[in-house]
Amino acid sequence: MSALPNFPELRFPDGLDAQGFLARYWQREPLLMRQALRGFENPLPGDELAGLACEPDVESRIILEQAEQGPWQVQHGPFDAERFAALPPSHWTLLVQDVDKHIAEIGALLDRFDFLPRWRIDDIMVSYAEDQGSVGPHVDDYDVFLIQAEGRRRWRIATDQSAPRGLIPDLEIRVLRQFQADQEWLLEPGDILYLPPGVPHWGIAEGACQTWSVGLRAPAWRELADDWLAQIAERFTPPGRWQDRKSTPPSNPSELDQASVQAMRAVVESGVAAAGLDAFTTWLGAWLTEPKLNLELEPPAPPWPEAEVIAALEASQRFERDGRSLMLFAAPLALDARDTQESHHHVSLFANGRVHELPAELVPLISRVANRRTLELSEVRAWLRDPRARTLIADLFNAGHYLILDVEGT
Length: 410
Fold this sequence. Notes:
The chain is of the alpha+beta class.
């Protein structure tokens, strides 16, 4: 990128603020926000996006509406320059996932959405389309903010909840068989269209255009339960096997007797009973920050001694967060006898699936670390007198969360 982006502040329509948006529209109704990012200038030219799609650790797709194999064909990256040169003049789209994590400067746009919990924000997907390019009419299971970054795209949506939702069969992507729009808008740079889950929509490029999609994470209950119950089985279920010490033979050998059923259920459910709120919080924080395999951090090798990390921070004045760094924190409260009293005095920092248990006195530092995209020496200098804070910063640096900036910050 030739210059660091300076994203405009997010502007809601007149008479609406973040609280009003959440109360009226969030997960309820679509909302078109004209010039929500007034003066937005796209910092990511199409050729740079194409170059990103050529990288082996970047998830990317090309969708061809018209192809020899049939409509709506999907090709997966990484691509090479020859592939882009061979594309038709219209009716195709390039999609690149997690651009905010591969280009940390792009991730700064997510700060404009800080009226939402950070754990709900999944990624920024960037879509480049030539004229008439689209991914077809479809329905998402999550909220999305569709930001027009360059050019123009016409969006059509269907708000009739009784409309058919059947899909065209045998396609890799989910394209609706039928789509009847009842609202449409032409979006230009700086416009945002918010869509709650379950709203059928179809965006078609009018000329070459680029759209950024801020996708919101919405874990499925079964997905959560599957992983949590696996944790219970591993960590809280008693070891050993079933033991049967009956002294009399059964009256009916084929009967699954209720005494055995209840005994087995009691042992299995004892694991659930043993796992308190603290354990669930710890698991959830780690689960929510666990990165995709292609987004794992690159720790320095060999690790730096703590003194060298602090010296580097003092010399450069600040560290920059890697775009792939994911952090949340929680200070769980002991709510029942299953949760330890020590939880009152500790805070958990979750960083790319790893859990750091820290004293509650460090909450102001931890909050700053988790929320900021840079670690400014001026903001943490006083904390460096605390050896626990120094150790945390060194641990995060050696895990790959931070990159060193020079004194000018370039």
